[in-house]
Amino acid sequence: MAGEKTEQPTAQRLKKARQEGQIGRSQDIGAWVGMLAASIVLPKTLSAAMDHSRELMGKIPATIADPDPHVALGILREGLLSATWTVLPLALTMMVVGIAAAGGQGGIRVATKLFLPKFNRLNPLPGLKKMFGPQSLWEGTKALVKTTVLAGVLYATMKDMVPLLMTAGRLPVSTLLAVVTDGALSVIRVAAVAGIVMAAADYFVVRRRTNKQLRMTKEEVKQEHKNTEGDPHVKGQIRSRQLAMARNRQMADVPTADVVLVNPTHVAVALRYDPAKGAPRIVAKGQGAIATKIRELATEHRIPMVQDVPLARALHKGTEVGHEIPAELFGAVAKVLAFVMSLKAKGSAAGMHRNPHATTAAAA
After folding, report:
1. How far is CA 356 from CA 8, 254, 307, 353, 362, in A?
2. What's a Pfam family in this record (predicted)?
3. I want to staple 350 with a disulfide (CB 3.0 to 4.6 A). Which of 276, 302, 318, 337 is the partner?
């Protein structure tokens, strides 16, 4: 059907979607992975915090016995520094996990367009459609599964811990704290692993939904291709202007040529020789109307024209404007330049001349 979005999004469409913050990603992945990482780092953090606390508490009785504001401030400063260094690994871990989770789901990009106010966001209809659409059904199912899994994990963990807590009166406080801590960490870790599995499923669902929203019609793909590659008509006009500018540039260089080789009417090639720059170079060439214009400029500026059909054709076909002549034509062009220099010595260089070495050049 016309207008049906059946085509996969193009690279340009995906790039635009990323710039607008329309990326298929699940927020749950970063949260659950962060919880798992925290359950690994947290025991060491708590152990370090307890050690620092005991050390600081040991200094307080002496400070109370001999009050000194400087000592008290030193203890406070030391406590704040200890707290900072203790919490820093946990904070860095959570930050790295959050960045890695975002980067693994399509890269990190600040979508500045999301900060711009849009009045269509105030329209309640899209929100109502989401509340009663497939997305709302998936979110409700996800919440139900999440609650069920977490309840099951909590029940399985606490089932083994409750009998032990019932006899906690006969256990030392340190042992009781260790048991409770291990149980809490186990709950967190198992819940985090289960949450990561659910978040992975959520990621694939969100990704699929986003790709479906970004699909394009055949007409949109054609239009985007035209916009990217350029309209052929416009490209043709640009190419024509470029060719015209190139012709104008080479026509401006014809007066600086030392000789113009002609065919005699169909092809014209203007050569300039500067010993300091190496071999002779083509400053202008063309056939048909361009060749006629080159001959007219040569006549106007008294540039000698030499008729040599094989050499003119070879130079026109095998050399670009601005390039040196091919090595295999050095000898033939050198003879033409020598012939032109002899004409200039006689004072009769301007006009049309037949190359006396044309037979040799053709043989070469």
Report:
1. 69, 24, 9, 9, 12
2. Bac_export_2
3. 302
Helix or strand run (H / E) with residue 352: strand 352-354
Q: Look up residue 148 and give its two tokens.
A: 């069920």
The strands making up 352-354's β-sheet, listed across from edge to edge, are: 281-287, 267-272, 259-262, 305-307, 352-354
Helix, coil or strand: residue 307: strand
Residue spans per domain, the chain:
11-226, 237-363
- Maximum pairwise Cα distance, the chain: 128
CB atoms within 10 A of CB 164: 14
CATH dotted code for 237-363: 3.40.1690.10
The model's pLDDT over 294-304, given as tens digits with 9 standing for 90+, comes to 888 888 888 89
pLDDT of residue 251: 83
DSSP-assigned letter for residue 347: T
Question: Cα–Cα distance between 67 and 226 in angstroms, integer?
Answer: 82
Each residue's pLDDT tens digit, 139-150: 777 778 778 877
